[in-house]
Write a structure and sequence with these properties.
about 475 residues; mainly alpha; two-stranded antiparallel sheet; 16 helices
Length: about 475
């Protein structure tokens, strides 16, 4: 029997690899991870081994064993039913609605740094709002067109990372290291620099995103594991070496979260007219990658939200799809609306673009990490209740080893959430905690309203079925 879907099979191994690199490899958090100092190198290597690798293996097994449209929503639904799946999907999606404004403020800040040094914060917020709605528009076109944005974004990221790494090598040979990478310096310490360690964990998320569009993948059983392997090696190498390069140029305490990237490029290449032109070219490429990040994540998150809505677990508007392209219009419009509200609200209370970026980012990161606990728990449960299902790819080892790996990942995610909410030496970050609780409460209201909507429809549908047809 041939199963047909309403989505075209357009994604191949190359697309999946580039898509995943574009989603996970983030220039926007590179300066933040380097702000942790030389110990960030230790954390990249350790977490790459104990979290990034196991999480990639788990994502490959789930994506090939359960290649359902909706990805993480479908996995949690099958394991823990629709209510928990809807909660996970809400967190997964609303994160993007607050993270997109963060990277678009980063876009505006770097644009100002390159071309308009006197650009006010209000104008930077206006740029962020415009980019949010452009993301909405692109999400409404077909994946066959939209996929080229993350593909190009991944290529440009690779070019920028390679340039930073090469520049760091030559800068170090001529000037030495701004932050010595000694064993003592790389040894972690308990202090407020730990607030940036969760950013490293955050930067390792996203392997599961490609599975949100499983219907568009030509051969998920073959290509998903390969894409995770190839993209994982690229991502970890670029992150580690890119962090070293920034630490070579700027003392950790002087790294600006918004302007640190261009500051580093200027130190490496900006000593001549030709070099300054090269910095501008790389800066423009970086601007595109920030935009491609938003588009890439919006594609996966909007699709997951739409699937939950189409199954009646969230308000019907969020499942509104384009009649021709079958793309998520309702979820995309909601994304643009939330992004606009977030930029206006946090922009009102922020003093600088750096404050605005970190406020939006840290709040979004907490919500973002919560669904991964659900995904990892779903992996454990499906191994128990559906262990006989054929698995095109399986995490090496027996069930006990797989559960140990998943449990380790869960503990690491919980620690990351705790460090976003509580900064050692400073205390609880109340605006992040309160914002998180309000967001979760609003999600519960939406889920409850969807239940009421279904309940109100049920009697009319029964009555319609009971009325005999007219002749």
């Amino acid at each position: 029997m041939t199963i047909t879907t309403k989505h075209g099979k357009t994604l191949k191994l190359k697309d999946l690899t580039l898509y995943t690199v574009s989603a996970i490899l983030l220039l926007d958090t590179l300066a933040a991870t380097a702000s942790a100092g030389a110990s960030s190198i230790f954390w990249w290597l350790l977490l790459g081994l104990v979290y990034f690798l196991p999480f990639g293996l788990i994502s490959a097994e789930m994506g090939t064993t359960y290649p359902e449209q909706g990805g993480i929503y479908a996995w949690v639904r099958d394991a823990y039913h629709k209510r928990w799946a809807s909660r996970v999907t809400w967190c997964y999606w609303v994160t993007n609605a607050f993270w997109c404004p963060a990277i678009y403020i980063l876009f505006a800040g770097i644009f100002s740094q390159l071309f308009a040094p006197d650009l006010s914060l209000n104008w930077q917020i206006a740029i962020g709002i415009a980019l949010a709605w452009l993301t909405v528009l692109i999400n409404i076109v077909t994946m066959n067109v939209g996929k080229w944005i993350p593909n190009l974004g991944a290529i440009l990221k690779a070019v920028i990372f390679i340039s930073i790494i090469i520049g760091g090598i030559f800068y170090t040979l001529n000037n030495g290291m701004a932050n010595p990478l000694t064993l003592e310096a790389m040894t972690p310490t308990w202090g407020n620099s730990l607030q940036y360690i969760p950013v490293i964990i955050y930067g390792m998320m996203g392997f599961e995103l490609m599975s949100s569009s499983s219907d568009e993948i030509k051969d998920p059983g073959r290509d998903i594991p390969k894409a995770i392997l190839y993209s994982g090696l690229i991502i970890l190498a670029f992150y580690t070496l890119g962090t070293v390069a920034i630490l070579a140029a700027i003392p950790a305490h002087d790294i600006n979260l918004v302007e640190g990237l261009i500051d580093t490029l200027n130190l490496f290449f900006g000593q001549s007219a030709l070099g300054r032109g090269f910095v501008i070219a790389l800066g423009v490429a970086a601007l595109f990658t920030f935009f491609s990040n938003g588009v890439t994540w919006a594609m996966g998150c909007n699709r997951s939200l739409a699937e939950a809505s189409l199954e009646g677990e969230l308000p019907r508007f969020l499942g509104w799809e384009h009649k021709t392209h079958n793309t998520p219009i309702g979820a995309s419009i909601a994304l643009g609306t939330f992004s606009t509200i977030a930029l206006l609200f946090y922009g009102y209370i922020a003093g600088t673009n750096e404050d605005l970026f970190w406020s939006l980012f840290s709040f979004a990161a907490v919500i973002f990490l919560l669904p991964y606990i659900g995904m990892l728990l779903a992996f454990i449960k499906m191994r128990k209740i559906d262990g006989s299902r054929p698995r095109p790819f399986k995490v090496p080892g027996n069930d006990f080893m797989a559960i140990i790996l998943a449990t380790t990942c869960i503990i690491i995610v919980i620690i990351a959430i705790a460090l976003f909410l509580y900064i050692p030496g400073e205390g609880v970050v109340w605006n992040v905690l309160i914002g998180t609780l309000c967001t979760l409460t609003f999600g519960e209201i939406l889920i409850r309203s969807a239940e009421i909507e279904k309940h109100d429809q049920a009697p009319s549908e029964k009555l319609k079925g009971a009325i005999p047809p007219s002749f």
